[in-house]
Design goal:
Blueprint (H helix, E strand, L loop, with lengths): L2 E7 L6 H9 L6 E8 L5 H5 L5 E5 L4 H10 L5 E4 L10 H5 L8 E5 L2 E3 L4 H21 L16 E4 H6 L12 H9 L4 E4 L5 E3 L2 H6 L1 H17 L5
Parallel strand pairs: 1-2, 1-4, 2-3, 5-8, 6-9
Antiparallel strand pairs: 4-7, 5-7
Length: about 230
Amino acid sequence: MRVSIVIPAFNEEQSLPDTIRAALAQDYPDFEVIVVNNASSDRTAEVAARFPVKLVHESRKGLLWARECGRQNASGDLIANMDADCLPDPGWISAGAPFFRNPAVVAVSGPYDYHDGGWLFRYLSLWTQKTLYWAISRLIQCPGVRQGAMLIGGNNLIRASALNQAGGYNTSILFYGEDTDTAKRVSAFGRVVFSNRLVMKTSARRFRAEGILRLEGKYIAYFFKTIFGRRKP
C-alpha cells in the first residue's frame, strides 16, 4: 500500500526542516511526503521547497483546511498524519501499515512522546496514553456503545477510502477536538486501532505556552463534547 504523509505547516520555518528529514527517512518502500503551507507569513514554503516533497498551498487558515488540502493532493492508499513539530522514527510507517492487512481496520494511532518536555511530564503523559487512551478507545468502540474512537491528531494512519466515505475532514473545526471528530467519522466504516507500538516524538511547546493543566483541561473537555455530541455530517 502506498502511503501519503501529510504535514500541515503554519509559520513553521524553524521546526519544519527536522520534521521533513525525519519523514523522508522512513524505511517503508512506497511513500510520498506532502507539506501543506497553510497561509504562512514566514519562510515555511521556501524551507519546504528545498526538500524532495510535494509542496501545496492552502490559503484558508486552519488545521483541518490544511489536512483536507493534503488529502485531496495525496496519491496514497493510506493517509499518514503528523504535525510540523513531529519527529517520527524511521520505522513509524512500517509499524502502522501492517494493521491495514485487516480490511476491517480503517485507522491506527498511538501515543505522543513529548521528547523536549520535563522528564516527569514526558513519562507520565506517555504512561497515561498507553494505558488510559488504549482502554478508552476499545471501550467506546464496543458493541452497544459505538461512540467513536481515540485518535492522536499528529500520529495516525487512516485508510484513504474511509476518509473519502466520511466526506473528508470536518473543516468547520479550527483545532480542538479535530482528531476526535475524525476518529468518530471514520469509525463508522470500520475499526480504529490504538497501538502502543506506534509512538511519535513531538514537542511539548504548546503545554509550555498554555500550561499543562489548562491545556489538558481543554483536550478533555473537547474530547467528551465531540464523542457524546451529535455526529458531524
